Amino acid sequence: MDKKDIKFSKHLFWDVEEAELDMDKHKEFIVERVLDYGFMNDWVVIKEYYSLENLAVIAKNIRSLMPKSLAFIAAVTNTQIIDYRCYKLAQSNPPHWNF
Fold first, then answer.
1. CB proximity list for 99: less than 8 A, separation 6 or greater
2. For the purposes of burial, counting CB atoms within 10 Å of the CB of 62, is it exposed (0-12), middle (13-18) or buried (19 or more)?
3. In angstroms, rounded to a whole number, what is the distance separating the alpha carbons of residues 11 and 5?
4. If you average pLDDT over each of 5-9, 55-59, 91-95, which comes out highest?
């Protein structure tokens, strides 16, 4: 898949210039946005570009993912949730007390 042919949904990168995104340099940012806010066609694009094995490695280093996105990537790649950085960081930050 050629980098020039890659098209994502318009809403994913509303805050950055999509033309300036590099698929290799900004892979964590792109994967995080697609997992949290992307449509199925966005998922297909990153799956074809990175492969499932590489997506698992990339996602394991992301600092924060929505719980639904974390469960999805772990199920699709057949990996354990406890191996993901975002899961470990969420566990080490206790919630505020409700009085």
1. none
2. buried
3. 18
4. 55-59
* Tokens encoding 93: 């930050």
Reduced 3-state DSSP string for 76-99: HHCCCHHHCHHHHHHHHCCCCCCC
CA distance 87 to 67: 9
Q: In 2-92, which residue ranges form alpha helices assigned H by DSSP?
A: 27-37, 40-50, 52-60, 67-77, 85-92
pTM: 0.84
Identify the DSSP state of 8: -
Q: How far apart are CA 87 and CA 83, in angstroms?
A: 8
Name the pLDDT band for 4 (thresholds 50, 70, 90): low
What's residue 2's pLDDT? 58
